[in-house]
Amino acid sequence: MAGTVGILMCQVLEEEISHLLLKDPEIKKISVVRSEFSSGVEECLQNKGKLSVLSGIDDFQPETGEGLEVLLDAQHVGLHMDKKLLQDSVLSKVRIMEKHCGVVLLGYGLCGNSLDKLDELLKDISIPVLMPTNDDGSTIDDCVCLVLGGTKYYMEEVRKMTGTWFSTPGWYKYWETLLLKELGAPDIKTVKWIFDKVGYKRVLTINTHISDEEKLQRDSNDFAQKFDFCSEQREGSLELILRALQKAKRIAAVVSNSNLSKKIVLGGNSVDENTMLKQLIEHVVEGDEDEAKDLAQNCLDNGTSAWTIIQDGLIPAMKIVSEKYDKKEYYLPQMLLSADAFYNAFSIVKPLLKSGEGTGKGTIVIGVVEGDIHDIGKNLVKTVIEASGYECIDMGRDVMIEDYIAKVKEVKPDYLMLSTLMTPTMANMRRVIEGLVEEGIRDTVKVVLGGGPVSMDFAKKIGADNYCDNEKETLKWLNSFQTA
Ligand code: B12
Residue 268 has what pLDDT? Predict the structure, then answer.
């Protein structure tokens, strides 16, 4: 067998992929492109006589004659955090690899649908680009599902305990990079605070028996101890990666044979009122819970209406927070703190809104669907729409399908808002809509979907009324019914 397989992969999979490459007798040489992120994979591949390190991809010189080669480029694990960066980086690297390889295999899953439209985006490329798949041929969701042996096993584990942090040797290597550096948490205490907030209780180590078992056990114990988790292990499998690699090798052989800020605009309020509202904005943006609450109270005592506090204080504050987040001036911990400060202040004014101005715009049931506990985005959407006068019933995260149906029956909301950040749980959005249809209540409520992997096409396909990309779009859409 001859030819060149390009492998573009996330650092987090370096142990699994290196293990398979070293074991494969048909692979004669592995050329790794040296970069800031290649030291881990270089370490895994050394001492076996197959490794060659390149200072740049253009130094790659395939050996002529018999034998299969691999050109490998490991990418930063931090791309996990940003859909657009991940997609752009994969696209540009694949285009570079195209010049040197007969096929490119991606050591990635859909990663929150960051990589779901590759066919379209790479339609001008002349070589096949493969991704690992589940048994039914669907693209694998992420690195966790990949080493568990498929998406269904991920769902199985999440059903056992939703608050599960999944770990592999790669995740143990890189969790600090992700959870401290990339997530913007200043210390372990803050990471623990984030975990506690979402309700994580267990670390599940996926053991594929490729690394030092004692070290893996130590890593899992240390991790569990740090975060007060229980620690469990489950057998993993390299089968899906192996299958993808075999396919890539076959293609490479065939190709080779054939030679082929924001200005804060305050309304017409008095100077004092403006000063206080400005301070309120600052404290919410800074995430000072107590000060935000006191200021909301001071504004009320000073005669500012509850609605003005929301309109000219809390909403502009959350707008600044989301802009700072977009510009990467804020990371998640700051956003969570600001949301807490917002709710503290909001709790003071909310009771006064009941039948006052700006209210009565409609009732919304909102939640994150079963199997997913990412809730920051849902909370941000809720914050903005609640502050804009919509009555919000928050069902939280990991909400069972039947609970949504029961709630819709009980409160007869105008809107049902479903969120998920993970591709394996998107199917539960469809199940909620099917449940509404079965109960004969689908037409009583407008269903809107949101979350990173979701799209308008998906929303249409499963019979939702709309999809919104972010909190601003959601509010715009909701408000369109106010004037209609
Ligand atoms: C922060 C984060 C976490 C935090 C979650 C904290 C929390 N309280 O939510 C922590 C660190 C705990 C975490 C855990 C995990 N995570 Co995570 N996480 C992320 C990350 C980096 C950011 C998500 C986020 O909060 N963004 C900020 C908010 C403001 O943006 P947003 O959520 O997109 O929301 C906006 C819009 O989407 C929209 N929106 C959202 N919801 C709704 C709802 C409606 C109705 C509407 C209209 C709009 C709307 O409006 C929001 C505001 O603008 C994403 C990657 C990414 N960039 O999305 C990965 C990501 C979601 N995680 C991922 C993974 C793999 C995991 C873990 C499995 C990792 C592990 N080793 O165990 C676990 C989950 C385990 C479990 N049991 O659920 C993958 C999911 C892949 C997949 N299978 O689809 C992602 C996509 C990373 C990746 N690139 O692969 N994660």
Answer: 41
